[in-house]
Task: structure prediction
Amino acid sequence: MKIKVIAAAVAVFCLNSGAAFADTSLNDYIEQSIGNSFRIKSLMSQYDVEKIRLEQEDKYYLPSFKIDHTTKTHMEDGPEEVGINPWDNRKHESNVNLRSNIWRDNHNDVYSMLASKADAAGMNVDIEKSNIRAQITTSVYNISLYESLIREGEDILAKAKKIDADIRDKVKGGLAKASDSTTAEVLITDMENAILATKLKIKQLRLNLEQVSGIPYPKDMAVDLTTVDALIGKKAVGDVQNNKSLRKKALEVQAANKAIDTADNWMSVDLYAKTKADNLTLSRSESEVGIMVTLDLFNPANYWKDKTATSQYKSEQYMLDQMREDLKLSLESQLSILDSNRRLLESQEASITIKRDLIQERQNEYQINVTSLYELIQAWNGYYLAIQQKTDTEATLVNTMLSIDVLTGDI
Result:
């Protein structure tokens, strides 16, 4: 029995230890960033405001109940004094009123208008979440690409330094020119500077990322580069109809359209009840229950409200049309950039293959004294430069693809 208990305890400890050392995923980091965003919290509060207004309109029939009570004490003049006799001359008057608006002809229009406004406010939250998700994903993927570049660059640099050491030995032995050693040193310095520049680029990306997310960049962030490759190779959608900003503007246009119909409320029906009590005694003659119908047959103010609302609707509709055209142009531009960089990436991958073959050829030629170590280190330097250019293109493709996802509403 004790063995089973110990085994169970060890199993739980191992599970907890595994959880404790688990890498931070991109989705976890994004959700933490969204949860810590004060802007999103503000937008969600504004969304709550619009939902409350909608609920208020939905329950427009809820009655108002009002009681007012007045206590009066009259002044009296006596033969010997002038003053107040508070007990003999005090009177009480109470009024009780209950009123409920049980029907009005523009209720459905008002409700539809407020529903569209609430949906637009909710869309604001979604837009901000999408922006945060896109910005964080872009930076994290780029960091992963450049970290991979640094790892490969440092590996190449180590090989180049080993070759450089061999060149120095040959120079000392009179088997190589001094200029070969100097040129090799220049090439190695160029590689070191390129790696340093990439590290500074990663540092800047992390700073930008922390500014967007509001939380430190996790040291244990885990990104599988196959997911980056999948994004780069993803088929792009060429339609902006699901763009979140466009959908929000369409909801605002709907609200403006409904506002035209809400400008005129020509009929409403109220149920009311009221009673009165004098000196705390109800008066039956002052008690009544009734239905009041109000007809607003002519009101110049409603006419001007209607004209104003109509003009506002036209303005919103024009803005929607312009936004749609602007988004189409932006998408077309991004798709063009995407296509150009994909073709460039294919060319760079072919170039890397050629440069890798060149390194092998240089090594084979060196074995038979056909080429020099300097030419071999030069081949490695060209190979690293090609990888660096390919990584920059991949980073551009990540930026472009996520921009397209924002434009098409896919993120």
